[in-house]
Write a structure and sequence with these properties.
Elements: H1 3-16, H2 19-59, H3 63-83, H4 90-116, H5 122-145, H6 151-170, H7 181-198, H8 204-250
C-alpha cells in the first residue's frame, strides 16, 4: 500500500523542485535496498567464491611450489647421473653432486618463501616433505647400492625420517610437532655428509666425510628420540584437555 503514495509523492515533489529528493529518497532507497540488495549480495557472494577459488588455483603455481617441483624433477635425473658409467666416474659423480646440491638449496628456500610471503598451499604441505625424503632417500640408496655407504646407515636415516613423518600424522589431531633446532642441524649435517659421499673424494677428505656422516647418524637418532618424546607429551596433553572439556560440558 505504501508503493503508490511514495511514487505519487515523488511525482508531485518532482514538479515542485527541491522536495523531490527528500520525499522520494527514503522510499526509493528502502524499495531498492529491499529488492536489489539480496540480488546484489547474492551476486557478490557468488562472485567472491569464484574469485577466491581462482586465487587458490593460481596460488599452486607460486615460487615456493615451483622450487618443490624442481626438487621432485631432479630426483630421477640425480639417480641417472649417480649410476652413469657404473657409478664410479668422477665427472658424472660431480654432476650428480650438483643436482643434489641444487635440491638441498631449494629445500632451504621454498619453506621460507612460503611462510614469509603467504604462499602456503595444500599442495606444498604434501609435496615438500615428499620431495625432501625422495632426494635424500635416492642419494642414500644409490650410495649403498654402489658400496660407498653401509646399508645400516641408510636404514637408520630413512627409518627415522619415515617413522617421524608417520608419527606427525598420528598425533596431528592433538597438535603439530614443531621442527627443532636439533632437527634443522640434523638436516644440514646429513646434506653435507651425503654430498661429500657423492663426490669421488680421496685422502683426508674421504676420512673427514666418515666423521661428518657419523655426526649425522648420531643427530638423526637423538633428534628422532626427542620427536618421539614430544609426540608422547603432545598426545597426553591433548587427551587431558579433551577430558577436561568433556567434564565441563557435562557439568
Amino acid at each position: 500500500m505504501t508503493g503508490v503514495p511514495a511514487s505519487a509523492a515523488g511525482g508531485a515533489s518532482g514538479a515542485n523542485g527541491a522536495p523531490a529528493s527528500a520525499a522520494s529518497g527514503p522510499a526509493s532507497g528502502a524499495v531498492s535496498g529491499a529488492v536489489s540488495g539480496p540480488q546484489n549480495g547474492g551476486k557478490t557472494a557468488r562472485g567472491g567464491k569464484i574469485a577466491a577459488a581462482a586465487v587458490n588455483q593460481a596460488s599452486v603455481w607460486n615460487v615456493a611450489n615451483l622450487l618443490t617441483m624442481l626438487r621432485l624433477v631432479l630426483v630421477p635425473g640425480f639417480v641417472a647421473l649417480m649410476l652413469a658409467d657404473d657409478g664410479y666416474d668422477p665427472a658424472w659423480r660431480s654432476l650428480a653432486w650438483a643436482a643434489f646440491a641444487i635440491a638441498m638449496i631449494t629445500d632451504l628456500f621454498d619453506g621460507h618463501l612460503a611462510r614469509t610471503y603467504n604462499l602456503v598451499t595444500d599442495f606444498g604441505k604434501i609435496a615438500d616433505p615428499i620431495a625432501d625424503k625422495a632426494i635424500m632417500g635416492a642419494a642414500l640408496i644409490c650410495l649403498s647400492a654402489l658400496g660407498d655407504l653401509p646399508w645400516w646407515v641408510t636404514g637408520v636415516i630413512l627409518g627415522r625420517e619415515l617413522g617421524i613423518t608417520l608419527l606427525r600424522f598420528l598425533v596431528i589431531r592433538y597438535g603439530v610437532i614443531p621442527a627443532s633446532r636439533g632437527g634443522k642441524l640434523k638436516t644440514l649435517t646429513q646434506g653435507v655428509a651425503v654430498g661429500m659421499y657423492i663426490l669421488a673424494l680421496t685422502g683426508w677428505l674421504a676420512t673427514a666425510r666418515f666423521w661428518v656422516m657419523a655426526v649425522a647418524v648420531v643427530l638423526t637418532v637423538v633428534t628422532g628420540l626427542d620427536y618421539v618424546r614430544q609426540a608422547i607429551v603432545l598426545r597426553r596433553q591433548g587427551i587431558a584437555e579433551r577430558k577436561a572439556a568433556s567434564a565441563e560440558t557435562e557439568a
